[in-house]
Amino acid sequence: MGPENLDQIAAAEKLRAQGMRHHICVCTAAGCQSAGSGEVKNALAREVADLGLKHTCEVKGVGCMGLCSAGPLVSVECGEDRVLYQKVKPDDAEDIVGALDGGTEVSRLVCDTRAPFFSRQMKIVLENSGRIDPERIEDYIAVGGYGALMRAITEMTPAEVVQEVIDSGLRGRGGAGYPTGLKWSTVAKANGGQQKYVICNGDEGDPGAFMDRAVLESDPHRVLEGMAIAGYAVGANHGYVYVRAEYPLAVKNLRTAIRQAERLGVLGSDIAGTRFSFRVEVRLGAGAFVCGEETALIASVEGKRGAPRPRPPYPAQEGLWGRPTLINNVETFANIAPIIRRGGDWFSGIGTGKSKGTKVFALAGSAVNTGLIEVPMGITLREIIFEIAGGIPDGRRFKAVQTGGPSGGCIPEQYLDLPVDYESLVKVGSIMGSGGMIVIDESSCMVDVAKYFMEFCMSESCGKCVPCRVGTTELHGLLSRISSGTAGARELAMLEELCEVVRNTSLCGLGQSAPNPVLSTLRYFRDEYTAHAAEGRCPAGVCKTEKEVHA
Amino acid sequence: MSAPIKTLSIDGRDVSATAEQTVLDVATENGIFIPALCHLDGITPVGACRLCLVEVQGSSKLLPACITRVEEGMRVTTDSERLARYRRSVMELLLAERNHICSVCVSNGNCELQALAQRLGITHVRYPYLFPKHSVDASHERFVADHNRCILCARCVRVCDEVEGAHTWDIMGRGVDCRVITDLSQPWGESETCTGCGKCVQVCPTGALVEKGKSVAEMSKRRQFLPYLAMMRGRNQ
Amino acid sequence: MIGLARPAPPSGDKRWKIVEATMRRNGYQGNSLIETLHSVQEAFGFLDDDALRFVALSLRLPLSQVYGAATFYHFFTMRPPGKHACVVCTGTACYIKGAPALLDALEKKYGIRPGETTEDGELSLLTARCVGSCSIAPVVVLDNEVAGKLGPKEIVSRVEGVMNHGS
Lengths: 551, 237, 167
Prior knowledge:
The complex is a heterotrimer.
Chain A lengths: L2 H16 L3 E6 L2 H5 L2 H14 L6 E6 L11 E5 L2 E5 L7 H9 L14 H4 L17 H6 L4 H9 L2 H11 L11 H10 L7 E6 L8 H8 L1 H15 L3 E6 L4 H17 L14 E6 L9 H8 L23 E5 H5 L1 H7 L1 H5 L9 E8 L5 E6 L4 H8 L9 E6 L5 E4 L9 H6 L8 E6 L4 H15 L5 H18 L5 H17 L3 H5 L2 H20 L10 H5 L1
Helix pairs in contact in A: 3-4, 7-11, 7-15, 8-9, 8-11, 10-11, 10-12, 19-20, 19-23, 20-21, 21-23
Chain B lengths: L4 E6 L2 E6 L4 H7 L23 E4 L6 E2 L10 E3 L3 H17 L14 H8 L16 E2 L5 E4 L8 H10 L4 E4 L6 E4 L16 H5 L5 E3 L13 H8 L5
Parallel strand pairs in B: 1-5
Antiparallel strand pairs in B: 1-2, 3-4, 3-5, 6-7, 7-10, 8-9
Chain C lengths: L15 H10 L7 H12 L4 H11 L3 H10 L11 E6 L2 H5 L2 H12 L5 E2 L5 E6 L10 E4 L2 E4 L3 H14 L2
Parallel strand pairs in C: 1-3
Antiparallel strand pairs in C: 1-4, 2-3, 4-5
Helix pairs in contact in C: 1-2, 2-3, 3-4, 6-7
C-alpha cells in the first residue's frame, strides 16, 4: 500500500461515479435520521429500482449537510449541477426521481443554496460532510483522502510535520484554544523511547453541541488520518478515540472506518512500507460530562471513575498509564490532513491574527436556520445570527447568544459586531468553547438560564474536590431561591462570593468554569437578578415565583 | 544515589529540598503550617480538599501544596488575605455539606476537621446547611461507619488499597451523592474482602470511621503505624 | 486454586456469552471495564450485583472499584428498565423550547421522576443531555422513536397511546 495505490483507488472510484448519470444523496446523519431520512432513502431507492434506473442513478447515504432544521435533506447531482431538496418525505420519491430525466426540479422542495446559510460558510472540517458516503473508504480516497498521511510519512520528517502544524496557527478546537503545534512538540520531545499515545477526545458533553458528532458520523476517515499523522509526528503508534456512548451512529461509522483502513493498509503495521505503525481503538464513554476533561478522560480509558487529577503534571508528560499522551479534540484532528496537504501557511491565511482557520458551530435555539455551520474566524456574531441563521423567528427580539456551553457565557446585543475569535469572546466574559451557539430571545429569563447551566454542572460534578462538589450544589440552591423570588440582596452577594471561591479553588476545568454563566449573566443582566431578588418578580415571565404561586 | 537538591523560597524564607519533595513536605519540615485534610503521609496525595492551595509566582492558578513538586527558584506564598478567605469558604462548604454535629460525636476533641476549623477561625457557617439523610453502618463486629461525618477525603480508600492491599473501600456515585462503600455497597459486616485490620479507622480524620465501644469524645486515632510502614517501604527519605 | 480460574457466569443465560466475548476480545484487561459494562447493559438492559461480581472477578478488579465505576457513569443503570422508555431531552435548546413543561406533565400523570420507573414496570422516564436534534426542539424519544415540537398535552397522549397499544 503506497501513494500510487491510493491514486489507483481514487481513479477507479471516479470512473465508477462518472458511470452514473445521477447521484441522489440522502443525509443519514443523526439529525435527519430522527426526522425520518432512513425511510426517505429507502423510498428513493425503491423508486429508482422500479423505474429500472439502477445503472444510471445511484442512491447513497451521506453525512450531515448542515441545515438540520430543514431536514431530511436530499441532494441530487448530475455532473456539475446540484439541487438541494429540503423536508423531503418518502412520498416525494416519485416526484424527485421523475424530475431526473427532464433535467427539471421539484420546485416545492427546493432549498436555495445561494442563501447566506450556504454561501457565507467556508468548509474545511466539513468539506466532505454531506458529499461522501461515510461508510465507503473509496469515497474518501477519491477526494484525496489519506494522501496527506502518505505525504507525511514518506516525504516529511516528524519534526517537519510538527512545524507545519505550528506554522498553521491551529488552536485546540475543544474549547481551551491551546496552540496545537506547541502541544504536539511537547509530546514529541517527551521521554524519547517511551510508549506514547494519541487520544481523540470525542466526548462532546456540552448540551446543544453536535459538531464532533457530525464529523465522526459523516467523515470518520478524516479524523483517523489526522490521528495517524499526529502519531507519526509525536512518536506514538497507538491511538484511542473516546466517543460518547450516546452517539451510536458515530461509534458504528468509526468502527467500520477503522476496519476498512486497516484492511487497506493505511492503518496498522508498517504503513506504506515505512516503519511507521499506527493502530486505533474506539473507547466508549458512559454519560459523564467531566470525561471531556483530559485527565478524567484518561482515567476513563483506564477503566476507572472519570475523576480528574491535578495538573501539573500534564498529559503531554504523564498521561495514559503515566506515558506521554497527546489529546486533541475531533475537530482539531479534522483540520490536520488539509494542513499537511495544503501547507500551514495556507491555513494561517484564514482567520484573524491569533485565531487561524475556521470554526464549526452548532447553531440552536431561537433562530430560523439551525444546524451546523463552518465559518472563518473573525466573522461577526451579527453575521452568523442574522444572516446565516436568518435571525429570530416569530418576530421576537434578540436577547443574548450563549457560547461555550456550561463553561461559557451569554453575550448581549451590544456586542453583536464582535469578531468571533478566542480572545474577543473571553474579553466579553464568554469563551469559544467547543462550538455550541444558542440564540436566546426575550422570552427567556437569564436567571433561569444560569440556573439551568448550574444544575448541569452540579449533576456532572465528579465529587472529588470540595469547592465543585458542594459549591455547585450551594450555587444551584441560591439560584433556585433567587429564581423563585425567595431570596434577597444577601443571597445575591453570597452568590458572587461563592462564584469566586469555586472558580479559583476547584481542581479541574468543570468547577473552575461552572460559575461562568452566572458571572456573565450578572454582568449584563443584573437588572433581572435584582428584579427577582428585590421584587420577587421574573421580568421575562418564566420563573415560577412565590408571588405567582400564591396569587 | 541522592536526588538533586533544589532551593526555593516559601513566604520569603529560603529553603532547600530534594527534587521529589512536595511543597507541603518542605513547608512542614521548616515549621511552616499549611492546612490540609485529604493529605496523609504514607499514602498517595490527591489534592482533593483544596485547603492546601498556595500561591506560586508565575502561575495564574493556585496550586495544591500536597501534590506539587518543588522547582528550582520557586517562590511560594502560603498565607495571604485571599488564601485565608478561600480556606474559610472551603471549610464552611465542608461543614455545610453533611451533618457534623460535634456535641454528640465520638471524635469530639480528637477530630482533624474540628481542629482545623478552629484553627482557621470558623465561628459560623454562612452557607445553607444541606442536611442530607445519611446512614450509620454498625454491621461490622468492631467498627462503625457514620456517613454523616464523612468528608469524602478518601484516605480510607487509599490506605486500604495502597497499604493493606484489600481495596475494600471505594467511592460510589457522583457529586454530593458520593458515598464511600465497601465491596458492592454491602453492609461493612458482610464484606468479603475486609481483613479487619482497622487501618481505615485510624486514618479517618473525623468520626466517620470509628471503633465500637467508644462514647462521645472518646475516639482518638492511632496513626504511628503509617509513617513507620511508609519508611520501611522506602517511601520516605 | 481460588482466583486463578475464570468464574462462571451468574446463570446459563446465553447472553452471558456476549459479555464473555467482549472481555476476551479485550484480553480480560482491567481497563476494559467500561466496555464490558456496556456489553452487560446492552444484553440485559441493566446491571445488577451478580453481573458486577462476575465482571469484577473475571477482570480481576476489586468489587468496590467496579461498583464505584458502575455508579459513576450515568449511562449505566442498576434498575431494570420499564417496558416503555420515554426520554426527554434536556439539552440547552430543548430546555429553552419547553422541556421542563414536558417533564412536569409526565411527572404529574405517571407519578415518577426522571430516572424512575412506574410501579407496574410499564414506563421509565429518563432525561438525556442532548440527542442532537436541536432543530425540532423540544425532543422526546419514545421507544426509540424521535418526536419533536410537542407540547405537554400532546406528549402525554403520545405516551398513553404507546402504552395502551403495547410495543
